[in-house]
Amino acid sequence: MNQDLYQFALRLADTSLTMGQRLAEWCGHGPYLEEDVALTNVSLDLIGHAQMFYQLACDNSETSTSPDDLAFLRDVPEYRNPLITELPRGDFAYTTLKQYFIDVYHLHLYQQLSVSSDEQLAALAQKALMEVKYHLSRSEAWCQRLSLSTEEAHEKMQKALDDLWFYTPELFETDESMQRLMTASVIPDMGAIQTVWQQQTEQLLEDCQLAKPENGWMATGGLVGEHTEHLGYMLADMQFLQRAYPGCEW
Amino acid sequence: MYSQGLKDAEGQLEPAELMAEFQARIDREEKIEPRDWMPEAYRKTLIRQMSQHAHSEIVGQLPEGNWITRAPSLKRKMILLAKVQDEAGHGLYIYSATETLGVTRDQLTDELLTGKAKYSSIFNYPTPSWADIGAVGWLVDGAAIMNQVPLCRSSYGPYARSMIRICKEESFHQRQGYEIMTVLARGTAAQKDMAQRALNRFWWPALMMFGPSDKDSKHSEQSMKWKIKRFTNDELRQKFIDATVPQAEHLGLTIPDPELRWNEETGQYDHGEINWQEFIDVIKGNGPCNKERLQARINAHEEGEWVREAAEVYQQKQNQEEAA
Lengths: 250, 324
Ligand SMILES: [Fe+2]
Ligand SMILES: [Fe+2]
Known about the structure:
The structure holds two protein chains of two kinds.
Chain A (H helix, E strand, L loop, with lengths): L1 H23 L8 H27 L7 H6 L19 H22 L5 H29 L3 H14 L11 H8 L6 H18 L22 H9 L1 H5 L6
Helix pairs in contact in A: 1-2, 1-7, 2-5, 4-5, 4-6, 4-8
Chain B lengths: L4 E3 L5 E3 H12 L12 H20 L1 H5 L8 H26 L5 H9 L16 H19 L8 H29 L3 H20 L11 H6 L7 H19 L9 E3 L4 E3 L5 H9 L5 H14 L1 H19 L1
Antiparallel strand pairs in B: 1-2, 3-4
Helix pairs in contact in B: 2-4, 4-7, 6-7, 6-8, 6-10
The complex binds fe (ii) ion (2 copies).
């Protein structure tokens, strides 16, 4: 069970870290100063969540490790995030829609995790949930603002949707390890989460007059460490100092 | 009422009675508020100084932002993100304070992006190593504090008030920067070397942050009289040197100035000549990163154009719906 929880904690942490890392790329480059500050806030929250869940992973690890070791010393095949979170930053529409999809996912996932049979996990999820609610209200408002304003913005949102949509089913994938946790009520039924996720996002897409794409390549692989080409570059950048100067304090 | 016109520094004709009353208020340490009468030159000087300050906060995000994705630990990453975010916040406060003088943020942004307005020369230097993030916090935020603490008593109310809030955060940044340097200086030989190189890079540019030497500073005298400035450039620079040299010694790092030595008589450090030609070059746009920094701001502005437009159109549509 510890090993299962370790793996699941990594899934949560890697998802938040890769999201936060991409968002951080906006710092100093946002469309408004106010947005710069807001995006950085969300990025900070997500990296904070990652640290929390890495700590949970450490507490359930068979070997002695630290949140920094997990973040900075694992390579691509060991990362457990769904592919969508490692995709490049893209333009503001792409960032916004991706953020919205993840925010809705986090909302429902953390809501359920906050009643987990594992008390530590429940407490962490509760803490993250507070911040996720704020992230969602922001990304949802931006989806509407961008989709229901100018033609150019609407087009960019539609393009973002076409590019991102088929990365979303992967969010709800499970493996044997997760299924054991589901049976033990440590984590919720991911199928049920998917149902509410779909209802909520499809309603917003309809409100935003955005059309779901009909077909595309269906992303998969994060749970078994099969990633896009982008993650390697992200890690090369993020892990540079730890790799170039091993064993140092910073 | 007839009053003899007095030409002020900007060549503007101002009524003598008003000028005298204005100066008297300043001499009494009263704060000047946005609705109060003020000489045109006072307004212009403040707009120039405050907008330069705001621009510096914004451009200042870039050299450090450069290391956010590569920060060596989760804790350092979060501290750096929060710091760079603080700088954006400082820019926001100061732009708002500047707007009380009758300019818009759009105008000010335009002046920055067209190269008409200046920002602090320090942000045109590169941050090629992680230690530069330490050096920037320690030296650049340190120098900013020296400059800004007296501004908390600036005669212009909105500027003084924004500075009080900002200074608290700057001293936090300075401590964090020094802490990065401490860890590096106590680390491996490679880390210590990284720290020394960063100090070498940033020492002289940090001294230049205080502006030209008093004998060459064209704005100083009037600004002192109006209490927009409280100390001269050279006084502030000296304070900074005196505060910083012992900190470098504590780190076991060497300040890259062979002429630096303690002067028993003056109770201050004597230092070598600053390369003012370099300062002038960087101000004029020929520093190592001028083009990059400005281009980064221009790109952000241009790439964000459609977003700002969309937000505006959306707001109009909402307003129309509400009205209907
Ligand atoms: Fe600042
Ligand atoms: Fe600062």
